[in-house]
Every structure is written in structure tokens, then in C-alpha cells.
């Protein structure tokens, strides 16, 4: 398989040849790129394989995974294709690199968070967990997609209290939705705009290490 996505892969420096590693796939926001996400999870680079997936559609100086009809309203055909291709990419990377398929995580911001949550709902326990920063689940995903159970998927959702792109109400609605889907939900609101604060980053790193049973390393 030749993936449709360009990507950056960071392997642990002292990688054991006979070991499988947890992985974090990062998904960036609209108009950004995969390198912009690495700084968020760089402190995990000795313990996780980190793969930054670049959106395959150019947008200004950056990229996106799908286009919009209007804010909060993805073009359905493009969104469907992105979900399909990202699912295929996760399986491709798992075969190509020494990834533990029981410890696959997605971490997305904004457009990347929207896709991370959608992939959790369509892949179910093929994922160990997701981190969704300042995003939402499209209504058509909830009502028209074939959804799998996420009761065993760990979900970290966070939102900026002063988010000027997706109001904090959307973060609360997203948390309420997942509260009914999984007992493994962590939801936090930070006093920030449409971005990731230092406190938010610290909480995400600690959550990932604990969920992957690496917190004592």
C-alpha cells in the first residue's frame, strides 16, 4: 500500500529490536502541518513511536484533511474519504513499524480532533485511546455512520473556555456525548482560546503515559 498521506515518524532512540511500542498518531488542525504537532508529544519520544500525519489537501502554507461548506459543516464526501484513508493508514503503519496494536492512540487538534473522535467511533477497540483537543463530533457521524462501541476506549477531551472558533458549549456537548459511550472519559476545560495551553499539554502527556502503563518509567 502507498498511503495518500505524507508523514513524519519518530522512533525511540534506544529501540529494542524485539519489542513492540505504543504509538501516537497526531492529526493537525486546518491549515497547519504534521511538524507543528510534534512539539506537543515530543517528551514521549523515548517511550512511544510518534507518527505525524499530514493532511493531503494543501491550504495556504499548510494542509487540511477535508474542506468545509461552512464552519462546523464538513463537505461530507471529503470527510468520508479522509476517515477511510486514515483508517487504512493506521493499519499500514502498524504493519510497517514495530507498533503494539493494543496501544494505538490518536491525538488531534481542531480538525484533527474531529477526525480522532470520528475514528474512535468507527474503529472502536482497534484503538486504545484518543486525545481530542478543541473539536466536536459532526452530527452526521452520530446519526449516519456505522458506529462501534467505545466502552473500552480511553477518551481525553479538552476545550478552551474562551475558544473563539468552537465555543466552549461545543466542548461540553462533546463530553456529554462520550459520557454516554464510555466510562473511560476524561474531560477538562482550560482558560485558553483555540489552542493548547502548557497545563493542557502536561495533562495530556501524563494521561497518555498512565493509560499506556508507562507512568512509572
Automatic annotation (TrEMBL):
<dbReference type="InterPro" id="IPR029058">
    <property type="entry name" value="AB_hydrolase_fold"/>
</dbReference>
<dbReference type="InterPro" id="IPR050565">
    <property type="entry name" value="LYPA1-2/EST-like"/>
</dbReference>
<dbReference type="Pfam" id="PF02230">
    <property type="entry name" value="Abhydrolase_2"/>
</dbReference>
<protein>
    <submittedName>
        <fullName>Phospholipase/carboxylesterase</fullName>
    </submittedName>
</protein>
<comment type="similarity">
    <text>Belongs to the AB hydrolase superfamily. AB hydrolase 2 family.</text>
</comment>
<feature type="domain" description="Phospholipase/carboxylesterase/thioesterase">
    <location>
        <begin position="17"/>
        <end position="209"/>
    </location>
</feature>
<dbReference type="InterPro" id="IPR003140">
    <property type="entry name" value="PLipase/COase/thioEstase"/>
</dbReference>
<keyword id="KW-0378">Hydrolase</keyword>
